[in-house]
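Justification of resources, computational component.

The compute hours requested in this renewal are based largely on the per-chain cost of generating structure records like the one below. Each record pairs the submitted sequence with a full structure-token output. That output is archived, and it is also reused by downstream analysis tasks.
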Amino acid sequence: MFGTEELRELVAKMVTAMREAPGVGLAAPQIGVSLQIIVLEDKPEYIRSMPPGKAEQMQRQPFELLVLCNPQLKAVGQAGARFYEGCLSVPGYQAAVDRYSTVEVNGFTPEGQPLRFQVSKGIDTFKP
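The structure output for this chain reads:
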């Protein structure tokens, strides 16, 4: 399926759904597709629209669109944080979510190229 028009169309549909919500992440099962694909993006305008100090408190940094196929995450260390997050699958729903401060991410681009990077306290530090 890597590199196919079908996958490109699915990713485009996911990105559109995420941005229209608006949200910062969407997984394929959230739109009824049983594949391990996620799209992530935190636009500067999303962060600017937050109340003063909230983005810093939540350790949010803007980052460009990232698409991961068959992602695998592995905690690096035990440090973590808890923040309230929304869910695009259940509009208006928010809950406190625990996340590790640093994770190693492995996956593939939609073209099938392997990706491996580490994220620490914000996806702005990723280096594909």
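The first helix runs from residue 5 to 20. Residues 5-125 form a domain with the Peptide Deformylase fold (CATH 3.90.45.10).
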